[in-house]
Amino acid sequence: MSTMTRTATVALLLTCAAGSVEAQDGSQADQGAYFRAVAEFYRMPRNEISILGDGQLPPDQIPVVLFIARRAGVSPDAVLALHRSGESWVELSKRYKVDAAQLHVPLSDAASAGPLADVYARYRALPPERWGEIQLTDRDILTLVNVRVLAQTLKVSPASVLAAAGGGGSFVEVYAHMIRGSG
Q1: What are the backbone dihedrals phi and psi of residue 94, each rounded to the nearest 5 degrees, phi first?
Q2: Would residue 43 be called left, alpha or beta, if left means φ above 0 and alpha means ψ between -120 and 50 degrees?
């Protein structure tokens, strides 16, 4: 088997494995499009994004792995292994000194923060040099990272992503909704 054929076969297998979470996160095509957006944002090959997910991690948590790893200067595999061993995103962000200041996504005062309204109220109540003191939840971290990734990849405002995320659901669904132009 040639190298190119082997590579194509491995990529197909990875795509199929990543598709095992299809029922909870939309169609396989939506997940594939989301993985392409994440890969574009982090300037990584899409197959590396799929490998990180391998069906055991919800797709919209992969950007959190990559964000913490990049900010901490460690491998994504190290962050992923610790998360799989039971450490929360809050615990991992503390371990690697990735605080609310680094997770902050600029949002105009007039914009609705939607599911992050409480978080942005805390950001607005403190001067930027104290944002690192803000305590976030796992969901806050997941949302802040995904808002950053989707806003920059889609070239839209963070407020647009937050508005689309206001209905709940995964960020795979939010991304699919936004690229279809219905958000």
Answers
A1: -70, -45
A2: left
Task: Kindly provide the b/e burial profile for residues 124-150, where b requires at least 16 CB atoms within 10 angstroms of the residue's own CB.
Answer: eeeeeeebeebebeeebbbbbbbbbbb
Q: How far apart are CA 136 and CA 105, in angstroms?
A: 14
pTM: 0.82
Q: pLDDT at position 3, please?
A: 41
- Rounded CA-CA distance 20/18 in Å is 5
Cα dihedral sign, 29-31-36-37: positive
Domain ranges of the chain: 3-179
For residue 55, the model assigns a pLDDT of 67
Query: What burial class does residue 113 get, using C-beta atoms within 10 Å of its C-beta: 0-12 exposed, 13-18 middle, 19+ buried?
Result: buried
163 conformational bin, left if phi > 0, alpha if psi -120 to 50, beta if neither: alpha
Of 19, 30, 1, which is closest to residue 176 (Cα–Cα)? Answer: 30
Structure tokens at 95: 């371990």
- Residue 2, sorted as left (phi over 0), alpha (psi -120 to 50) or beta, turns out to be beta
Amino acid 148 reads R
pLDDT digits (tens, 9 = 90+) for 107-159: 988 888 988 999 999 999 999 999 999 999 999 999 999 999 999 999 999 99
Do the beta carbons of residue 19 and residue 4 sit within 8 Å?
no
